[in-house]
Every structure is written in C-alpha cells, then in structure tokens.
Amino acid sequence: MTTGRKARFPEIVKANETEILTDWMGRQLESTATRRDLIGEGALRQQSRDFLGAFVETALRGGLDQMHGPHWSGVRDQLSQLSRSRAEQGFSPIETATFVLSLKQPLFDRLRKSISDPVELAEEMWSASVALDALGLYTTEAHQKSREQIINRQQQEMLELSTPVVTLWQGILALPLIGTLDSARTQVVMESLLQRIVETGSLIAILDITGVPTVDTLVAQHLLKTVAAARLMGADCIISGIRPQIAQTIVHLGVDLNSVTTKATLADAFAIALKRSGLAVTRLAGYPGSGQAPTTLKRTED
Amino acid sequence: MERIPILKMGGFLLVSIQVDMHDRLALQLQDDLTTRIAETSARGVLIDISALEMVDSFIGRMLGNIAAMARVLDAQTVVVGMRPAVAITLVELGMSLAGVRTALNIERGMELLSGSLEEAGRENDIAPR
Q: What is the mean pLDDT of residues A294-301?
C-alpha cells in the first residue's frame, strides 16, 4: 500500500455491503471448504455478516498498514472467537482461513465494477488483498492456539487421572503407576503419595510399575526420589511390578535399587507388606481349593 | 536469646522445633542437645519438625549432624512429623537424610525408639553372660 494515500476500497465495500454479502454467501454455500455438515446456514450468515461489518467499519477508519496494531484488535478478537468455535467443531485450519480468504472474490468483483482505471484498480486490490491475507493468517494462528489449549487441558486431565493412590489395607497404600514417569508426573505422584501417607498414617507404600513401559536412568531416579521422600515421612516403600526385561535393563544401566525392597508382582509386595504389619491371610476351611477335602468327603473316609 | 526447648520424657529427649530455624539457632540446638544427652544419659532423641515449613540444605545437614552426634553419645535419633512439602524439598536438594530414622508422628516415633531400645537391651543382656 502506498503511503500518504487513503485506500478507497473500504468506501466502495461499505456502499455495496449487502450485495457483497449476498454474493459471498452464495459462493460459500457452493464451496466444499465451508463444511455445511458442521455449520448451519443461519450461523454462517451471522458470522459472515458480523465479520464483513467489522472489517469494513475498521478499514474505513484507516490503519490498513498496521494489521497487527491495536486498531484491528476488535476484528482480531472476533476472528479468534470464530476460530476457537470452529476448532472445537472440527474444522481444519485451511477451512477456517478459507472463510476469510473467500471474501476476496466477491470483493474484487465489486472493485472491478466500481473502478475503471487499471492502475488504481490494481492498487486497491492489492491493499484489500494484504488486509485479508493478514486476517486469514491470523485465523490460522488462532486456530492453532485453541488446538494447543485443548491438548494442554487434556494433558493436565491425564496427569490427574493417572496418579491414583489406593488404600490396600489399613496402613498399606498402593500407587499403580501407568505411563512414562517424567519430572512433572513424579512431582504429582510424590505430592499425592505423601499427602495420603499423612492422611492415612500409613507405614508402607507399594509403588507398582507394571504400567510403566520403559525404565531408564531418569525414571529410576524419579522412583528413588519418591522412595526417599516417603521414607522421610516415616513410610517404607516397596517397588513391585518389575518385569523381567526391566530387571535386565536396570542392571545393565547400573541403577542401584539395593536400598529398596523390590518384588516382581503386586501380590508379592502386598504379602510382604502384610507380614511387616504383623498380618496374615488365611483361607477358611471347607472352600473349594482350600487344600482340605470338603467336610462331606471327610466323613466318608472315616 | 531465643532457644529451642529440650524436654525430658523418661529415657528420651523431646525437641520440638516450633519456630523458623535460622543458622545460629540450629548451632545453639546442637550445643544444648549434646550437653543434655551427656547430662541425662538419654537413650533416644525425638525431633519433632511438624511446625517446620521451610528447610534449606543447612537445616537438612544439621538434622543429619545431630543424629550423628547423638549416635556417638549412644542415643538414637528419630525425626518425626515431616511435612510432605518439606520432604519433597529435601529430596530435591539431594538430601535423603540417610543416617536418620524417621516416623510419621511423635507416637510412631516413640514406638520405634522403644522397640529398637528393647532389642538393643536384649542384645546387651546377652553379651555379658
């Protein structure tokens, strides 16, 4: 855009707003990128009218050379809201940007009819094009941002879902770890475990790593940190669910787990925990598989 | 000058840290506690840090030192009532207080001390025979 000269296209658009909107709507309804399966005609018309109105009003007040300035913040806010709702509805970034860019064709048509001088026409088309391109790119960015927000929120939810602390018995806690342990998760795991130790007054905590796909030095270090923190609170830790491959990896990596009791399965760890608490599990006589013959059979033997 | 009180309970000494620990106070506590252990020939020391909200590496090292000093004077030390946030901080600082015994609360600490003293007592009884 040339400096010192005010663009004429906003005035032309303003004068022909209704025709351009009708033309634009018609084209949008024909195009496949509009995704009529995701958005109704009424909502689309509303969005188109709002955007065109805001675009023209802002362009009339100038500022076409600073599309990222505060002058355009109203239009940008409107577009980011639109992008967010479209991201949630399942539109692709291209389809979202096309909404803005598709305005070019009806707009240029109108300019061609209103301006006869080819130099001026090219000039006006260029400045309109630059403005719409900037806004189109902005929708892509906003679309991306809202997708990232969704991902972040899901990550947070997964973090909370994947760290339950369960009470196996009075004084015995279990922490079934699922997924890779990174620093952020270790922090959450540690905090929730220590909190539960205080609440329940537990003496033994079992860290079950059956659901941890790989154990490298970092994961082992995080595990040992958790064990050390629990010990500072006066609780003993048992690590269970160590698969044969993981046992091999641990030794190959030279990780020292000597200070912690380790068991292959959660059941073994639970048995140890019961023993340390002075408890025992006994099978009641007379049940199938109890090792004793049912009472009726016994009698016949007598 | 402020001081951390050291209470005698039977054969044990009870230290309850209720104020913010600063370095001079910590050194004073080391002095006082070793003196009291020697005076009373106590067999166990309970350090209650349930009111301690902030720790640094100095406090961590001090706890370890007190335990080591008490051991030299033949008394066992149990640190009780550590808060989760404090435990996490100490671990992140790389101080797992390897030589110190820990318990969740003062009651558990007492049980731990009397349990291990009984065991030690039995061993001592056997030795002279």
A: 46
Residue of B nearest to A201 (CA): B104
Chain A residues with CB under 8 Å of B105 CB are 201, 234
Host H or E run for residue B19: none
Task: State whether ipTM is beyond 0.90.
Answer: no
Fold for A9-154, please state it. Answer: Globin-like (1.10.490)
Residue type (1 letter), B23: D
The answer to which of A66-75, A146-155, A228-237, A248-257 has the lowest mean pLDDT is A66-75
What is the chain B residue with the closest CA to A188? B88
**Within its chain, how far is the Cα of A38 from the centroid?**
22
Q: Which residues of B touch A204 (CB under 8 A)?
A: none
Q: Nearest CA to CA, how far is A238 from chain B (Å)?
A: 17
Q: What residues does each domain of chain A span?
A: 9-154, 166-276
In DSSP terms, A239 is beta-bridged to A207, A262
CA nearest to B112 within chain A: A234
CA distance B69 to A51: 77
A255-269, B46-60, B92-106, B115-129: which has the minimum mean pLDDT? B115-129
Fold assignment, A166-276: Transcription Regulator spoIIAA (3.30.750)
- Judge: B84–A231 Cβ closer than 8 Å, yes or no: no
Q: Is A133's pLDDT higher than 50?
A: yes
